[in-house]
Design brief:
This is Receptor like protein 30-like. The protein contains seven helices and 57 strands. The chain is mainly β and 809 residues long. The strands form nine sheets. The protein has a 25-stranded mixed beta sheet, with no helix packed on it. A nine-stranded parallel beta sheet has the order 12-14-16-18-20-22-24-26-28, with no helix packed on it. Helix 5 links the parallel strand 53 and strand 54. Helix 1 packs parallel to helix 7. Bound molecules: 2-acetamido-2-deoxy-beta-D-glucopyranose (12 copies). The site of one 2-acetamido-2-deoxy-beta-D-glucopyranose (NAG) has 3 residues, from loops.
Length: 809
């Protein structure tokens, strides 16, 4: 699945030969001759067309093959360009036409012997690259990117010595690549990233005298110093390779280098950044993220006047941040130094970067006051440090504050709600969680809710009411005010949050009727009201999309009608049908005890968390789960029947009804919950037998029937027989476990125990993602790549006016 955003960028290709443009223009202007298509070329093209019976006829691409027929001149067919004099086909561009087949070794394509440019970018091609490509010896440009081609790159490619431009990105190619490279020393652009090539040493690249763009492969070994001796080099992406050791540029003179983009992310490079790097005077983007670089803050890098984006995240840099020697004419716009060991304060001198728009210093050991000038950024991430305050006063925030993302979470902020936040009218993302903010949440908060998508105030010391400030909060997706000391009722203006998917008010002192009115929020998927003082019955219809509800530890009471769950469609589904449900936001549940609150870099992905407290649940859930459905009604005062309609919630994996006063039988319909993994009905007054069919629920590994009036045989299923007898204790008439001790342990009054006494295990962290392109890491990668490319192509065109850049669209 490649997102559509990607198509539009990756189709951009570079043509380095001005005469091509000239010749195309000449053809169009000067040669209206109706019949100059050569028959052999026409037949070869028609033969080629025949090879793709499964191609998508509905392709919107203008250069689809539908115009290819014997009646017209093949030089006027879509996607085809002929040489004006000879009538030979010299260019074929079928980018984005879903050909949906493999390329045959004897394909008509290989009869087009005069082809100079061939674009089969994103054509849904699979199978191997035929060695017959070696016949197309006039090829200067070949683009087979974004297909499912596999196998080795044929060594016959080495025959294509005219090749200037070779793109094989995003396929499933394997084997060693560099053999095919041997004689392609005229290459200007070589892009082979995102394949499955065998790890190999990067060959000496210095013979590629014209190389400007080099992307990827699967190379290892020491830092490829020789690559940087190529004077034409401008764009290098060696991310996700396996280079080790320090960066070194020998005694090279770098100041004449044209290098604009350098990515070495996700390698194993170490040592300090050499000072000589500051001589790359044209460098605009530098990505060194996720290596083992060490040493002090490389302040010298920031003296490169053109440098715009710098990413040093996930390394071992340490010591203070220092901007002393940098100049105020710097172009720096984005600085990411997250996940290092920087300490001390952010110096006030950061104010000299007038163009700085984004700063990420998360996960360091920074402390003290955050310079107020940073409040003018578009994105400021301070998470997981020891900052205590921001700015000097609210006067630092100007009217034109355009901050969209502010992360203050897990620091040492304390004191009242910072009023300057109310000035940030463009905020989309605000995370103040896990600090010691206190006092009330001010009514001025209303001013910043218009664009807000995520608001996380979890784990602070806020008190008073949650003010009625959500009237304009129509974009709010996630609201987490859990673990504060909020009182009173839930504000009715929450009814305006039509985009809300995740609401967590757990661990406060809200005292309100059960908010059944929330059922009109049709996007709501996760509702956590746990550990408050909600009261009254909550009989209502609705909650159609709900996937997780936790109302445990409240004062709710009442009975459930039998049909109660019949319209809880969100829990009926057994899988997450992302597309069908238009499920843009709700991503996945991350069941990982150690990753309680995870932040995913480089995307607008955000993880908040919830916990469900459950007795005896297996702690080994570590997988990411996309299809988690849960109901926790425990520790209330519900009574009467467990409704039969519970059996309709086919997706349910977790059901906790314990510590209530249910009196019915255990409904037989539970046996229909084939995904159920954990069931707790303990501490009720249930009677009758445990339905024997429950023994067939193969995922049901954790269960608790203790402290009821159940009778008869325990089901024979292996999952049941594997249970500890404490799961059945205090049901005097229950029998069938090997161990009789259970039955004999008689606790007369099944009074709920205090939570500290139980072996409670917090086991769920919920990952909620927001924004586009967050469905899987792969997609995030694609988008990131495409942006890099777009950015580069724009610069490349500007600096190379003779270069023709065309879009394959
Ligand atoms: C590709 O062709 C196969 C049959 O060869 C067909 O089942 C499949 O739906 C086609 N895919 C597309 C995207 O057209
Ligand atoms: C093409 O589009 C038509 C209507 O838009 C549709 O009925 C047909 O199934 C489509 N064919 C393919 C191969 O996608
Ligand atoms: C193409 O190259 C292959 C070898 O790779 C050769 O066997 C074949 O004859 C060539 N075809 C043409 C049309 O030249
Ligand atoms: C290499 O190209 C020549 C024509 O220039 C052709 O005769 C030969 O078959 C090609 N070799 C391969 C391996 O394709
Ligand atoms: C890619 O190739 C590998 C073997 O090299 C194979 O195991 C894998 O299934 C292929 N993946 C796809 C998506 O074709
Ligand atoms: C590279 O070119 C040289 C000389 O043109 C030739 O001898 C050699 O066989 C070529 N290597 C490959 C792998 O084609
Ligand atoms: C990198 O190299 C190490 C050691 O040689 C190897 O274990 C690891 O699999 C390699 N990783 C990649 C992504 O090639
Ligand atoms: C760099 O050092 C090498 C030997 O290590 C030498 O051959 C070369 O001439 C030096 N280049 C410059 C520009 O000093
Ligand atoms: C960091 O790089 C390693 C390979 O060196 C990779 O396995 C890992 O996933 C990367 N981490 C992140 C967060 O991208
Ligand atoms: C909360 O912040 C403290 C330090 O302020 C940190 O130790 C702790 O890990 C944070 N908790 C979470 C859940 O991030
Ligand atoms: C929370 O605020 C109250 C006063 O409002 C104070 O007594 C208490 O110490 C604060 N707790 C924390 C953890 O800051
Ligand atoms: C289980 O579901 C089926 C339909 O899927 C239904 O016919 C059956 O009555 C249900 N069983 C119980 C016990 O509810």
């Amino acid at each position: 699945m490649i997102p559509s955003q990607y198509y539009s960028f990756s189709g951009i290709v570079v043509t380095l030969y001005f005469f091509f443009l000239a010749s195309c223009v000449l053809q169009i202007l000067a040669s209206p001759t109706p019949h100059y298509c050569r028959n052999d070329q026409r037949d070869a093209l028609l033969e080629f067309k025949q090879e793709f019976p499964g191609r998508n006829m509905n392709s919107s691409s203008y250069n689809d093959m539908s115009s290819w027929n014997k009646k017209s001149d093949c030089c006027y067919w879509g996607a085809v360009v002929c040489d004006a004099k000879s009538g030979q086909v010299i260019s074929l561009d079928l980018s984005k036409v879903a050909l949906n087949n493999s390329l045959k070794p004897n394909s008509g394509l290989f009869k087009l012997l005069y082809l100079q440019r061939l674009y089969l970018l994103n054509c849904n091609l699979y199978g191997e690259i035929p060695s017959s490509f070696g016949n197309l010896s006039h090829l200067m440009e070949l683009d087979l990117s974004i297909n499912n081609l596999d196998g080795q790159v044929p060594s016959s490619i080495a025959n294509l010595t005219q090749l200037r431009y070779l793109r094989l990105l995003e396929n499933n190619l394997s084997g060693k690549f560099s053999v095919s490279l041997a004689n392609l020393t005229n290459l200007v652009q070589l892009e082979i990233g995102n394949n499955y090539f065998e790890p190999e040493l990067l060959p000496d690249m210095s013979r590629f005298h014209n190389l400007a763009i080099f992307w990827g492969g699967n190379f290892f070994g020491p830092f490829p110093t020789s690559l940087f001796t190529i004077p034409s080099l401008q764009w290098v992406d060696l991310g996700e390779n396996n280079f080790t050791g320090p960066i070194s540029f020998g005694n090279m003179s770098l100041s004449s280098s044209r290098l604009m983009f350098l990515s070495l992310e996700d390698n194993k490079l170490d040592g300090p950044i050499p000072k000589s790097m500051s001589k790359f005077l044209n460098l605009e983007q530098l990505d060194l993220r996720n290596n083992s670089f060490s040493g002090p803050f490389p302040t010298f890098l920031l003296t490169i006047p053109s440098l715009t984006i710098v990413n040093l995240a996930q390394n071992h840099f340490k010591g203070p941040i220092d901007f002393e020697k940098t100049s105020s004419s710097s172009s720096l716009g984005v600085l990411n130094i997250a996940d290092n060991k920087f300490d001390g304060q952010i110096p006030e001198s950061i104010s000299k970067f007038h163009k700085l728009g984004e700063l990420d210093v998360s996960n360091n050991k920074l402390e003290g006051n955050v310079p107020g000038c940073l409040l003018s950024l578009a994105s400021l991430k301070l998470s997981h440090n020891s900052f205590t305050s921001v700015g000097k006063s609210s006067s630092q925030v100007s009217e034109q504050a355009e901050m969209r993302e502010l992360r203050l979470d897990s620091n040492s902020f304390r004191g009242p709600f910072p009023y300057w936040i109310c000035e940030m009218r463009s905020l989309e993302f605000l995370d103040m969680s896990n600090n010691s903010f206190s006092g009330s949440i001010p009514p001025c908060f209303r001013d910043i809710t218009k664009f807000l998508e995520v608001l996380n105030l979890r784990n602070n010391n806020f008190s008073g009411n949650l003010p009625d400030v959500f009237v304009s909060a129509t974009k709010l997706i996630l609201l987490d005010v859990s673990r504060n000391r909020l009182v009173g009722k839930l504000p009715k203006s929450l009814i305006n949050c039509i985009a809300m998917e995740f609401l967590n008010v757990e661990g406060n002192k809200f005292k309100d009727k059960f908010p059944s009115w929330l059922s009109s929020l049709l996007s709501l998927k996760v509702l956590i009201l746990r550990s408050n003082q909600f009261y009254h019955p909550h009989v209502s219809v609705g909650f159609q999309r709900l996937k997780v509800i936790d109302v445990s530890h409240n004062d709710l009471t009442g009975t459930f009608p039998d049909f109660y769950f019949s319209d809880w469609f969100g829990m009926c589904q057994t899988t997450t049908l992302l597309n069908l449900e238009n499920d843009v936001i709700y991503m996945e549940y991350l069941i990982d005890m150690n990753n309680y609150e995870a932040f995913v870099m480089n995307s607008r992905t955000y993880s908040s968390s919830m916990e469900m407290v459950y007795k005896g649940v297996d702690t080994k859930f570590e997988k990411i789960r996309k299809d988690f459905r849960a109901i926790d009604f425990s520790r209330n005062r519900f009574y009467g029947n467990i409704p039969e309609s519970i059996g309709l919630l086919k997706g349910l994996r977790f059901l906790n009804l314990s510590s209530n006063a249910f009196t019915s039988n255990i409904p037989h319909s539970l046996a229909n919950l084939t995904n159920l993994e954990a069931l707790d009905v303990s501490h009720n007054q249930l009677s009758g037998q445990i339905p024997q069919d429950l023994g067939e629920l193969s995922f049901l590994s954790t269960m608790n029937f203790a402290h009821n009036n159940l009778e008869g045989p325990i089901p024979r299923g292996t999952q049941f027989q594997r249970q500890n007898c404490s799961s059945f204790m205090d049901n005097p008439k229950l029998y069938g476990l090997d161990d009789d001790i259970c039955r004999k342990t008689h606790v007369p009054n099944p009074a709920p125990q205090k939570s500290e006494e139980e072996q409670m295990i917090s086991w769920i962290a919920l990952a909620i993602a927001y924004g586009p392109g967050v469905f899987c890491g792969l997609v995030i990668g694609h988008i990131f790549i495409s942006h890099k490319h777009e950015w580069f192509m724009e610069r490349f065109r500007r600096n190379n006016p003779r270069v023709v850049i065309r879009s394959a669209r």
